[in-house]
Amino acid sequence: MSDPLLTVEDLAVTFPDPDGSDTRAVDGVSLSVEAGEIHGLVGESGSGKSVTARTVLRLLDDADVSASRLAYRGEDLLAKSEREMRAVRGDEIGMVFQDALSALNPVMTVGEQIAEVVRHHGDVDESTSLLSELRRKYVTGTSKSTASWRRAVELLETVGIPDPEQRASEYPHQLSGGQRQRVMIAQALAGDPSLIIADEPTTALDVTVEAGILTELRELCADFNVAILLITHDLGVVAQTCDHVTVMYSGSVMEHGPTDDIFEAPAHPYTEGLLRSIPEGAKRGDELATIPGSAPDPRDRPAGCPFRDRCPEATEACTDSLPEHALSAEHHTYCHHRPHEDGGRDDVRTSPQPER
Ligand SMILES: Nc1ncnc2c1ncn2[C@@H]1O[C@H](COP(=O)(O)OP(=O)(O)OP(=O)(O)O)[C@@H](O)[C@H]1O
Ligand SMILES: [Mg+2]
């Protein structure tokens, strides 16, 4: 099998604090995203999802980062210079944030913001010198006859914005929340990336608008063969959108595998708790934080399993380590007590699951 598109192995991210109480936001996270798949990264607030995503793009400069591997298409992201990373961001990996209003430039039309990415991606023969960009931005505006503008309008149409020509000339505040998220997706697509990291792209939206955008993401994934790392705290979104899912808790991965396997047979007590707390399976809009208790303080996280204080099955062993068990080639859980149904916890089955 070829290398995954994105490989994260044993990632640790710490925010140093001068008084010594460093925040270990991410503590040994591994995940891999295959080309063209939608991979869900799910976990309750503060579990380290955004920090993981931002670290992949090297957007956190105040953090200490270590990993045994952080690779995109087999290239070490931690070894890249800032200049090389700028080429990765946008051209290779696009990013969509939760709050489009603050992520978009309020004084530029949305068409121009997308056109700018198109020009810098180098698909069109238009000057991207500082002077011409400044002139476009503050003096003349983008000429509507340029290839980059036409491409921007096309992309707005691709992401399902009605009347894209008219919309392209509008400013972010003139659009609805759902349309702004679509603009951000169009902007991410403008660099023709192979991976889009979408950090809670629909959390701020109402349920019907969210459904439309998730459908759009699935279609884009299929039509453009772009992979999506979809960050969410909503199990319903995962169930309806993702091929694979990684469940995080307090900076660590608890379980990962094909979405169907995890929903049908969750292996970690944390994942089981999450699913059990939702009456008829996962429904859109259901929040994750329904298990009694709270996560450990990331400035003082104990050794062993971070979930143990809330876990009905915790034993002495959970205080010292977080062992990995393979239930299949793709479905892994991190727990002393699993798998236990069929044949004891060290009885690791390695037969691959059927492809979804
Ligand atoms: N720049 C920073 N400096 C210090 N601590 C930080 C910083 N950014 C994040 N953290 C801490 O890292 C931990 C993980 O944060 P992160 O934003 O990744 O959580 P999350 O899973 O994305 O949560 P949410 O669902 O609320 O977005 C939190 O305890 C947070 O307070
Ligand atoms: Mg977040």
Automatic annotation (TrEMBL):
Where is the region Disordered?
289-308, 330-356
Renumbered to this chain, the Basic and acidic residues biased-composition regions fall at 297-308
A GO MF term: ATP hydrolysis activity
* Coiled-coil spans in chain: none
SMART domains hit by this protein: AAA (SM00382)
Q: Which Gene3D superfamilies match?
A: P-loop containing nucleotide triphosphate hydrolases
Its placement in the membrane is given as: Peripheral membrane protein
Major location, coarse class? membrane
Q: Which UniProt keywords apply?
A: ATP-binding, Cell inner membrane, Cell membrane, Membrane, Nucleotide-binding, Translocase, Transport
The record, for InterPro entries, names: AAA+_ATPase, ABC_Ni/Peptide_Import, ABC_transporter-like_ATP-bd, ABC_transporter-like_CS, Oligopep_ABC_C, P-loop_NTPase
Tell me the NCBIfam families matching this sequence: oligo_HPY
Q: What is this protein called?
A: Peptide ABC transporter ATP-binding protein
Which organism encodes this protein? Halarchaeum nitratireducens
